[in-house]
Design a protein that fits this description.
- Helix content is about 70%, strand content about 5%.
- It has about 170 residues and is mostly helical.
- Strands 2-1-3 form a three-stranded parallel β-sheet.
- Helix 2 packs parallel to helix 5.
- The longest helix is centred in the middle third of the chain and has 54 residues, at about 85-135.
């Protein structure tokens, strides 16, 4: 409740302190950041790349998991014929493989999460720069993230322009 009041106060303060245009109205724009990040050509390509990476990691992990299961099943079948020393040796080998598998799984999840976070961080920074450039060119007094304002009438949606500039950036390799 207090947070909403603070946000509303900040928005009202910003709007009332903005220079007024000749016709007396402040020009306000908005950007749908989610649309830029996930529906732009760049966002769609990123999502496809992430899905491919996830599938590749999943396939490799599934194959490794099958090998570990085969190892366990073989150990269980031969357990009655093995000496105590052989049992301990095989059990230790299985545990090492299983722990390595768990670490690989955690590492793959971490890699995917880091790639997602890095994409969002760099993309949001780029979106802010692009929105600022477009706002200056369009002579807007303010640009808000769509959905952040409780009410906005007659705001200029610059999402498409931001998406186009976002997609036209040089690709990172």
């Amino acid at each position: 409740m207090i947070r909403q009041g603070v946000v509303a106060g900040v928005l009202i303060g910003l709007l009332t302190s903005m220079p007024v245009l000749a016709d007396g109205a402040a020009r306000i724009g908005f950007v749908n950041i989610e649309a830029v990040l996930f529906e732009s050509k760049t966002g769609i390509q990123f999502k496809a790349d992430m899905e491919k990476l996830k599938k590749d990691k999943s396939t490799a992990l599934r194959k490794e998991g099958e090998k570990i299961n085969q190892m366990r099943e073989g150990f269980e079948k031969e357990m009655m014929t093995l000496t105590d020393a052989q049992k301990l040796e095989r059990q230790k080998a299985y545990q090492e493989k299983f722990q390595a598998f768990q670490m690989s799984n955690a590492s793959a999840e971490n890699e995917l999460r880091q790639k997602q976070e890095e994409y969002q961080k760099t993309s949001i920074e780029a979106t802010r720069r692009i929105a600022s450039e477009i706002a200056k060119a369009e002579k807007l007094n303010a640009v808000f993230v769509s959905g952040a304002a409780l009410y906005m009438d007659n705001g200029l949606d610059i999402t498409q322009k931001v998406s186009e500039k976002f997609d036209s950036r040089p690709a990172k390799k």
